[in-house]
UniProtKB/TrEMBL annotation:
The keyword Transmembrane helix does not apply. The lineage of its organism: Bacteria, Pseudomonadati, Pseudomonadota, Gammaproteobacteria, Enterobacterales. Keywords: Cell outer membrane, Membrane, Transmembrane, Transmembrane beta strand, Transport. It is found in: Cell outer membrane. It comes from Rahnella sikkimica. GO terms for molecular function: efflux transmembrane transporter activity; porin activity. Its main location: membrane. This is Transporter.
């Protein structure tokens, strides 16, 4: 594990990229796709081979002079024209390789979302822990006040015990939040391989406010582009399969040396080779039907990807709007509770308020802080979810995603 003094959201996301097996897997898949393109393109290049065999070979002539014990030589084959088979195969592999690129981008966006959520969990439980500690200090002030009044005979000892009981309850709550904070840090460390002493605050101002997702630009979203590339690849597969009905023309040449007993000789051949299926029991038609079925399925995956994005963006927008409203209400509630606490403290000292009143208003202050913190991070989660849905998370984190042909900067 790497130890750092401080980290921010961008740093942990980049660390998660370098650690994520799924990102590495998709990067390797891109390499496979490039190799598949080169394999498909190789069909247009000359195919050269070496042949050799040994053993008795008898050819019937009047003198048996052509009988040989070994033969060796070179063969050459050059594709001339195959009515689109090879070109369709190349286009299919290019579309597949492009889909791998979009899949990598989509995977990185998912990893970034997961990491950002874990980072927000750490910040959230840090603030909640601090809020509980502040409430405990406030309750300890109330206990000291009640203790002084009890010693002066102005109130009973039960007030002190009641305040202490409330403090004990909040200390139990503190332990729960501290455990949640430790779990959140462990989750983030597992994702990034990084431990830090300080986690920089989340700045919502860096994120664009979500808008009603009526006009999402699907042309920039990797999951949709991935599905579209898969559909294109399936279309080229249909073209390639249909071309199996047509002949293939190639030039074939070989030069073979035959080792005969009496008169070794060379045999040279140059031929135009034509291969055309006449009847294969419906195999070609069946393959065409399968390819068209895969194309239709790929088309539905494009629609499904768009629907998933619209749903995720819509839910994230609704959650963000609700959290923003809750944050505003909680802020007003906190101000009112703090003012009430100040008044109640003064009235308690004048014996115009009971200890229960003072403990109750302290609970109101804590509850308002709790609601404010929860709403703040609910808004943050929604911002991350919405940005991920519309493929804007990495740019807003300052990670260079670039155009569709480039990859995020991992440095």
């Amino acid at each position: 594990m790497k130890g750092l003094e401080s980290v921010d959201l961008k740093t942990v996301v980049l660390q998660a990229f370098s650690r994520s097996p799924s990102v590495t897997q998709q990067a390797y898949q891109m390499g496979i796709g490039q190799a598949q393109i080169r394999e498909a393109q190789s069909a247009w290049y000359p195919q050269v081979g070496l042949t050799a065999n040994t053993g008795s070979s008898t050819q019937q002539d009047s003198t048996n002079s052509m009988n040989n014990a070994a033969a060796y030589g070179l063969t050459l084959s050059q594709l001339i024209y195959d009515f689109g088979k090879t070109n369709a195969s190349i286009s299919q592999q290019k579309s597949a390789e492009e889909s791998y690129r979009y899949k990598l981008l989509a995977t990185m966006s998912d990893v970034a979302e997961q990491t950002a959520t874990a980072y927000l969990d750490v910040l959230k439980y840090q603030e909640l822990t601090q809020a509980v500690e502040e409430n405990i200090r406030a309750l300890e002030d109330v206990r000291r006040m009640s203790s002084l009044r009890s010693e002066a005979g102005l109130t009973t000892r039960s007030d002190v015990l009641q305040a202490q009981s409330r403090i004990s309850g909040m200390r139990s709550t503190l332990k729960q939040y501290q455990a949640s904070l430790s779990a959140a840090k462990a989750q983030l460390t597992a994702l990034t391989g990084v431990r830090a002493n300080y986690y920089k605050p989340f700045t919502a101002a860096k994120f664009n406010d979500p808008v009603v997702p009526d006009n999402i630009d699907y042309s920039k979203i990797p999951t949709v582009l991935y599905a579209q590339a898969q559909k294109e690849s399936a279309s080229f597969e249909v073209d390639k399969t249909k071309s199996d009905y047509l002949p293939t023309l190639s030039l074939q040449a070989n030069r073979t040396r035959y080792e005969t007993k009496n008169n070794p000789y060379w045999n040279n051949q140059i031929q135009l080779h034509v291969s055309a299926p006449l009847y294969q029991g419906g195999a070609v038609s069946a393959r065409v039907g399968q390819a068209e079925g895969r194309k239709n399925i790929a088309g539905t995956l494009v629609d499904q990807a768009k629907l998933d994005i619209l749903q995720k963006a819509s839910v994230a927008y609704a959650n963000w709007a609700g959290a923003e409203g809750q944050a505003q209400a909680s802020a007003e509630q906190l101000q009112d509770s703090v003012r009430s606490r100040d008044v109640y403290k003064s009235e308690y000292k004048l014996n115009q308020r009971t200890l229960n009143d003072l403990l109750s208003v302290e609970q109101d202050v804590f509850q308002a802080k709790f609601s404010q913190i929860s709403a703040k991070y609910d808004s943050g989660y929604s911002l991350v979810n919405y940005a991920t849905a519309v493929n804007n998370l990495l740019p807003q984190l300052g990670i260079n995603q670039g155009a569709s042909q480039s990859l995020p900067d991992l440095k």
